[in-house]
Amino acid sequence: MEKQALLDGFKKVFGRSGQDVFFSPGRINLIGEHTDYNNGLSMPCAISLGTYGVFAPRNDDQVELYSQNIKGNIVSFPVTDETPIARPEEQWANYFKGMLTYLRQSGYEINNGFSLYVYGNLPYGAGLSSSASIEMLMGEILKDEYNIPVSNIQLARLGQRTENEFLGLKSGIMDQFAVRMGKKNNAVLLNSATLSYQYKPMDNLDYILIIMSTNKKHSLANSAYNDRVKQCHDALQLLQQKLEISSLSDLDFKMLEEYSYLINNPVLIQRVRHVVTENARTQEATHAIQTGDMEYLGRLINASHVSLAYDYEVSSKELDTLVNTAWQQPGVAGARMIGGGFAGSAIALVKRSQVDNLKAKVSAVYRQKIGYDASFYDVEIVDGPRKID
């Protein structure tokens, strides 16, 4: 979105001029799904869709937030207020408020109020991590405007804390880390146990990533996401009767085969099997990227979807329709659901020359089987949050 249009929006809402404009990307995850809260591997990328914010300081202690997407009232509260916002129509503001609260609790001085105008072009509920985009937008704004000496990794941790404690979603750190540490034309290989990471170049000119949105809304906090987290925790406790492991990601497939009798529950064994095999696939994907073998990377992406659908059971008719149809199209190396699941989006790794065909064929099948249209987004892999000059 043009900077001037954002500044005009701020002035229309608040009746004065905005001072600075910021952007925070969304994210997709190439491979490594539902592994981060199991201290595993993932390979996300920051994308060119995201959240914009226009900031201006105030002379008092009031914080004013306005979302152009929601088009509701201005949400206002004292900068010292640490209680979650109660009204359902204002729940979006909790992502901003949580980051503000936890930065202040960390000892950083943020005592003056401000006005913030927000606009996002991430499709709502598409599983592209609009929440992490918002959290890292707030982190970048507060770091810049209040001269806070906070590290990128600490900001990612505070974003995760906002999800876990302020919003009640027991998610891992991958979303916030991917947004905060995003690098143009690179995926980030993240080890959630150690927060060690490596950049993996994704500038193969023959293939691009296409986002395919189901246009079916989802809310992870109200889905079975937290149930999956609990199932993994329960399985880990059973395995720890005999094994000295700290997470499911300490297992390899041989160990799972040998000690699955400790779990002795078909559903829990499925969940663990997904985590173990997904970590292995993510490791293999790094080799595929390094050697430029997009066909092998695509097969790993396909296998990830199968595991998510059958072992982790987080796919849906809508997601399966997108993915299964994409698999049948020429030039598609791989496709899978991304995000928490149950709705949201899928990605396809496709040759540039076949993008239009992919969209046309998948769109037609989806409309016939589901009854409404899917949406498609071409995205670039971009850097993390920044101030727009």
Shape: globular
What number is the mean pLDDT? 94
- Tell me the domain tally: 2
Terminal CA distance reads 13 Å
Order of helices and strands: HEEEEEHEHHHEEEHHHHHEEHEE
Tell me the CATH topology of the largest domain.
Answer: Ribosomal Protein S5, domain 2
Our estimate of the beta-strand percent is 15-25%
Number of extended strands: 13
CATH architecture of the largest domain: 2-Layer Sandwich
Structural notes for this entry:
- The active site is at residue 175.
- Substrate binds at residues 33-36, 225.
- There is one protein chain.
- The chain has helices at 3-14, 93-105, 130-145, 152-167, 174-180, 225-239, 253-263, 266-291, 294-310, 317-327, 355-370; strands spanning 20-29, 41-42, 44-57, 62-67, 75-78, 114-120, 186-191, 196-201, 207-213, 332-338, 345-351, 375-378, 386-388.
- With 389 residues, it is an alpha+beta fold.
- Strands 5-4-6-3-1-13 form a 6-stranded mixed sheet, with helices on both faces. The protein has a 4-stranded antiparallel sheet with strand order 10-11-9-12. A 3-stranded antiparallel sheet has the order 2-7-8, sandwiched between helices.
- α6 (225-239) packs across α8 (266-291), α7 (253-263) runs antiparallel to α8 (266-291) and α10 runs antiparallel to α11 (355-370).
- The longest helix has 26 residues, at 266-291.
- The protein starts with a helix and ends with a strand.
- The model has no long low-confidence stretch (mean pLDDT 94).
